[in-house]
Write a structure and sequence with these properties.
By secondary structure, this protein is of the alpha/beta class. About 30% of the residues lie in helices and about 15% in strands. The chain has a four-stranded mixed beta sheet, with helices on one face. It has a three-stranded antiparallel beta sheet with strand order 5-6-7, with no helix packed on it. Helix 2 crosses helix 4. The protein is globular. The two termini are about 25 Å apart.
Length: about 190
């Protein structure tokens, strides 16, 4: 289960970082105790890691995690962008570089590339809408609704299969996917 901790800073009007994180940490402790593997994500670094260090990027968030998990080290001393660090049994922190979030108003690229959408990930929005990944928070690629059809039927539907097999051919068939910077991480 992934938690995008960088979303706090990306949401206008967000207040009380510590309270926000403590609620997530409380849930994470219970989930990890039940055997769930957790990944905290801070994917907001610049390409220049020296800039990240001098700006103390994410320091407030990391301090809350260090205290909550009683760490005897500073997380930024251990983590390498693109990989993670174990902060507790079944609980990890991953930091990586920022990418262009997909949006229909963004410029479209050539559509070449790969994505793990519907291979190792899918998302269910609060209203039950199933989308191929967590980056589609607006439900642009609406595959169906779990309140109307079983999840297994939704991910085997025509639109889902077109997306899945398109990426097998290294081709983004959905407009939103052709406007996503995350897909660029996997090359063509």
């Amino acid at each position: 289960m992934n938690f995008s901790l960088h979303s706090f800073d990306g949401h206008e009007g967000s207040e009380n970082r510590e309270g926000y994180l403590k609620e997530i940490i409380s849930f994470v402790r219970e989930a990890a105790a039940q055997g769930v593997i957790i990944s905290f994500r801070l994917w907001n670094l610049t390409e220049d890691n020296q800039t990240n260090l001098t700006r103390s990027r994410n320091r407030e968030t990391l301090a809350v995690l260090e205290e909550a998990f009683d760490l005897d080290f500073k997380i930024e001393e251990k983590v390498v962008p693109g990989s993670g660090v174990r902060i507790a049994p079944r609980i990890y922190l991953n930091q990586d570089h920022e990418f262009r979030w997909p949006a229909l108003h963004e410029p479209e690229d050539d559509g070449k590339g790969f994505c793990h959408a519907l291979r190792s990930q899918a998302a269910v929005l609060v209203d039950g809408t199933v989308v191929p990944c967590c980056l589609d928070g607006e439900g642009v690629i609406n595959l169906g609704n779990i309140h109307e059809r079983p999840f297994s039927e939704i991910v085997e539907g025509e639109r889902a299969n077109n997306l899945f097999y398109g990426f097998s051919r290294r081709e983004a068939v959905e407009e939103l996917c052709r406007k996503c910077g995350y897909r660029q991480r996997f090359g063509t």
